[in-house]
Amino acid sequence: MKLFVNIIGTIIFITFGSSYTLAQLHMPHVFSDHMVLQRDSRANIWGWSSAGSKVNIVGTWNTKDTISTITDHNGRWSTQIPTAQAGGPYTLTIQSIGQTIILKDILLGDIYLCSGQSNMEWGGNQNLPEIIAELPQANNPHIRLLQVNRIGSATPQENILNKWQSLNATSLKPFSAIGYFIAQKLNKETNVPIGIINSSWGGTAAEVWTAKEEIQKDSELLDN
User: Fold this and answer.
1) pLDDT at 20 over 80
2) Alpha-carbon torsion, ordered 19, 9, 76, 25, to 10 deg
3) 12 φ, ψ to 5°?
4) Cβ of 96: how many Cβ atoms within 10 Å?
5) Rounded distance between C-alpha atoms, residue 198 and residue 149, angstroms
6) Where does 141-218 show beta strands of DSSP type E?
């Protein structure tokens, strides 16, 4: 299963709600060290700061191109940053009201979302022999993992509990075995960094992965 994602902001995560101190520059946890941004695109990025303040964003893949935006009356800001061809690691710097966030070890590559039930979810925690055998050699720096916690929400969320992780035995063991082997194959075939997101939940019905609006406008789905 494969789904290209223009990272962050184009996928709806099953996640959690939170409250924020609006005067402080901060971002969702998913914007973290070790993350992957979709190459050759315009990546969505957002966060919070003081209302009406200016936010400057610059990535080291193009230090001459600083992206600026202004927070709204709620202190929220959002914009897009142009990315470049596959590569890295890079640094992304976000500045506002004298505060700075520096995200390190960022790759530009291709991002895939793995979703489904237990056959997608299972990995080393279920003692699958294929992934257990892989753990001692799980060290490819061009594969990054994002495991989304199993926390439900009735509405789309702007933040999740989870951060991107580099590949190692500890991060891989609870991850989707199918997702990992897909990432491994794609990286080998394309020589492009791969970010793989696992948002799967055993036993869930298809309806919970479908937008409410899509179900409501389909009489057959609505009746069932």
Assistant:
1) no
2) 70
3) -100, 115
4) 24
5) 9
6) 143-147, 165-166, 194-200
CA distance 224 to 85: 46
Please write the tens of the pLDDT for every residue from 126-170.
999 999 999 999 999 999 999 998 877 777 778 888 899 999 999
- The Cα–Cα gap between 78 and 66 comes to 14
Q: What are the two backbone dihedrals, phi and then psi, of residue 130, each rounded to the nearest 5 degrees? A: -65, -40
Tokens of 40: 């050759």
Q: How are beta strands 194-200 and 99-116 bridged, if at all?
A: parallel
The DSSP 8-state label assigned to residue 5 in this structure reads -
Helix (H) or strand (E) holding 105: strand 99-116
Structure tokens at 131: 């992934």
Q: Cα–Cα–Cα angle for 135, 127, 14, nearest 5°?
A: 90
Q: What angle do CA 55, 57, 60 make, to 5 degrees?
A: 165
pLDDT computed for residue 6 by the predictor:
40
Residue 21 scores a pLDDT above 70: no
State the residue for tokens 């291709």: 110
